[in-house]
Design goal:
Distance between the termini of chain A: 18 Å
Strand order of the largest sheet of chain A: 1-5-6-12-11-10-7-9-8
Oligomer: heterodimer
CATH topology of the largest domain in chain A: BirA Bifunctional Protein, domain 2
Order of helices and strands of chain B: EHEEEHEHHEEHEHEHEHEEH
CATH superfamily of the largest domain in chain B: Periplasmic binding protein-like II
Radius of gyration of chain A: 24 Å
CATH class of the largest domain in chain B: Alpha Beta
Number of strands of chain A: 12
Radius of gyration of chain B: 20 Å
Helix content of chain A: 40-55%
Distance between the termini of chain B: 32 Å
CATH superfamily of the largest domain in chain A: Bira Bifunctional Protein, Domain 2
Mean pLDDT of chain B: 90
Low-confidence stretches of chain A: none
Largest sheet of chain B: 7 strands, mixed
Largest sheet of chain A: 9 strands, mixed
Order of helices and strands of chain A: HEEHEEHEEHEHHHHHHHEHHEEEHEH
Number of domains of chain B: 2
Number of helices of chain B: 9
Number of helices of chain A: 15
Strand content of chain A: 15-25%
Strand order of the largest sheet of chain B: 2-3-4-1-5-12-6
Largest interface: A-B, 46 and 37 residues
Shape of chain B: elongated
CATH topology of the largest domain in chain B: D-Maltodextrin-Binding Protein, domain 2
Shape of chain A: globular
Number of domains of chain A: 3
CATH class of the largest domain in chain A: Alpha Beta
CATH architecture of the largest domain in chain B: 3-Layer(aba) Sandwich
CATH architecture of the largest domain in chain A: 2-Layer Sandwich
Low-confidence stretches of chain B: none
Chain lengths: 376, 235
């Protein structure tokens, strides 16, 4: 067990002032929710073991998922603000395998702009009090704006979801844009019977065809994808492969993704972009501007903050805001909105959620650097 | 000091490896009886031969337990975490050819590429209340291919230690990642390989560990083996 950093109590005191209730999360967690939510890639980076009864367990690799599960299990009403501070365990090539994180998860606040602004403000205030001279830089992104741009370009749904899914992963986005600039292609890999039905757009016929083949081959039709699901997606796919972006639309997307502006100019830059590109993204811009206003209202200093249009996280539970705060190249805090997570984890109703996490090991390094290495 | 070379201890792999060494003029004599797991090479007194299972060879060459080994590229790339820092592939031996592939039920007529699979995976939870399941023994190769190369983040791996191709039909998994040489087993189980679903063209390789520093004499003995195998392959 590592000792708590000496500034841990300061953080908890500040969180308490911000009406966040401290929550205890066990170190040993069931691994499935993490692997289900964050994907198998996480497996290499967590400390995994198996119980005697065959249940996968892991050392807590982060707090957001267990805090949300705790919220669901205890059926605490919303809104609810949870604060946590504790060790997390991850296999890292650089840095220690165990380190402290602290943060706040704000669940169920319907005033999205105010909640977003509060998360940014709380993270920034905590960092400023811990590392006063850190020259903190904040980067902010917003998936909602990207989603609106993609929707306004009039691409079929399937393409929109592909692009949104890749948001934040530059290489994947590039690959998709490349594909979208290709002229329409036929759907490959189909036999004559399926092709004929597809050409007629006969969803029921396709479904019957798949159903028949499943029965012939002895597949359990209820275990995985159903015939109607396969037929429906085949028709959708035919629409996808016939869609492509003309050079102008492609140019608009690339221009958008290259947007990188000081926060004070971001609203103006986005409005100008929408006007020049002739896209109706007004609703998303309203959300964006409401957040900017909320930040100004709560006294957050926008001068050291940039908006980067391509900044996002390519996991399906993240939704709107993402942000990161760094000093001297080290990320000290990361946060964002994850409106889809609680329902994915089993909540019965939609619960809007936003939060942030502080990297206490990096904060300790930044503090000792600021003190000329005097403390440790 | 001496150097240790590991060869597969049984089956086709063993026979094929021995025949490559024979063609290279490296006569391997078992120590003791025919079934012994240790041997020597005629004319190279500083070289010891160990017969191990192919997957042990992959692991041992990675951590420096042996200097040189003959094993499948798939096993090396699956077992070692930073393969390029741990080993050198000295020669491809021309046997044990097989591909590690992504295969889906052939009734998934809407799925032909990894991009299609990405669409299916992203919707899977919404449709079925769980993530897409992949049966495989290749955890690492699967993760690298799906997550890093194709940006598919959400799926679950179901460990499969044998008869992987049966998993989709029995409902244990939706798709598989497996090794295949002719594809006939996949076909017999109504599976098809995605058009861009070949993860690795594997074959038996002569693999050298980077984990050990050898003295000049051992280095020379090791290179004598590598050079002769190389020459035999190119003749």
């Amino acid at each position: 067990m590592l000792n708590q950093p000496e500034f841990a109590d300061d953080i908890l005191a500040l969180f308490a002032q911000r009406n966040a209730r401290s929550v205890d999360i066990p170190v040993i967690q069931p691994a499935d929710p993490f692997l289900d939510m964050a994907g198998e890639e996480l497996r290499r980076r967590i400390f995994l073991t198996e119980s005697e009864t065959g249940i996968s367990l892991c050392l807590r690799p982060e707090f957001t998922i267990p805090v949300c599960l705790h919220h669901i299990d205890t059926a605490s009403g919303t809104p609810q603000r949870y604060a946590y501070l504790g060790q997390v365990f991850r296999q890292r090539r650089d840095g220690e395998n165990e380190f402290y994180q602290a943060g706040i998860e704000d669940l169920g606040n319907d005033d999205v702009a105010a909640a977003d602004a509060a998360a940014i403000r709380d993270a920034s205030d905590t960092l400023t009090s811990l590392v006063p001279d850190a020259n903190l830089q904040t980067t902010l992104g917003d998936q909602t704006v990207f989603e609106a741009v993609v929707a306004a370009l009039g691409l079929p749904d399937g393409w929109q979801t592909r692009l949104v899914r890749a948001f934040g992963d530059a290489a994947q986005i590039d690959g998709l844009l490349q594909n979208l600039s290709q002229p329409a292609a036929r759907v490959p890999g189909l036999d004559d019977a399926a092709s004929a039905l597809l050409a007629k757009g006969d969803e029921d016929g396709l479904s019957a065809l798949v159903d028949g083949r499943m029965k012939d081959t002895g597949y359990l039709t209820n275990a995985s994808r159903t015939p109607s699901e396969i037929a429906r997606r085949l028709i959708q796919k035919a629409q996808l492969s016939s869609a492509h972006l003309d050079p102008k639309a492609l140019d608009i997307l690339k221009t958008f993704l290259a947007l990188d502006a000081p926060m004070a100019d971001a609203s103006g830059a986005l409005a100008a972009f929408a006007r020049i590109a002739d896209l109706d993204i007004a609703a998303a811009l309203d959300t964006f501007n409401a957040r900017v206003s909320a930040l100004e209202e709560n006294g957050f200093d926008l001068s050291a903050t940039r908006y980067r249009a391509a900044f996002g996280r390519p996991l399906d539970y993240y939704t709107g805001l993402v942000f990161e705060m760094s000093a001297q190249g080290a990320v000290l805090a990361g946060g964002g909105r994850f409106d889809r997570l609680l329902t994915l984890l089993g909540a019965q109703t939609n619960i809007p959620a936003v939060g942030f996490s502080l990297w206490l090991d990096r904060i300790a390094t930044a503090r000792s650097a600021a003190n000329g290495g005097a403390t440790r | 000091m001496s150097v240790t070379i590991a060869l597969p201890s049984k089956g086709r792999m063993k026979d094929d490896a021995l025949s490559v060494f024979e063609r290279a003029g490296l006569e391997i004599a078992s120590i003791g009886n025919d079934r012994s797991y240790r041997g020597t090479i005629g004319g190279l007194p500083g070289v010891e031969v160990a017969f191990l299972s192919a997957s042990e060879i992959a692991r041992e060459v990675g951590n420096g337990g042996i200097d040189l080994g003959v094993t499948g590229e798939d096993l090396v790339r699956e077992d070692l975490s930073v393969v390029d820092e741990q080993v050198d592939f000295c020669a491809r031996l021309g046997f044990g050819n097989a591909d590690v592939v992504v295969a889906v039920p052939d009734i998934w007529i809407d799925v032909d590429t990894m991009a299609d699979l990405g669409d299916v995976a992203s919707e899977f939870r919404h449709q079925h209340g769980r993530r897409l399941r992949i049966a495989t023994k290749y955890w690492r190769l699967t993760q690298q291919f799906f997550s890093a190369q194709h940006g598919i983040q959400v799926y679950r791996i179901v460990e499969s230690l044998g008869a992987t191709e049966g998993a989709p039909a029995s409902g244990q998994a939706d798709i598989i990642v497996d090794i295949t040489s002719t594809g006939s087993t996949l076909k017999a189980n109504h599976l098809k390989i995605l058009s861009d679903g070949i993860i690795l063209n594997s074959e038996a390789c002569l693999v050298r560990s980077k984990a050990r520093n050898l003295d000049a004499a051992d280095e020379k003995a090791l290179w004598a083996v590598i050079d002769r195998v190389d020459a035999a392959l190119n003749s």
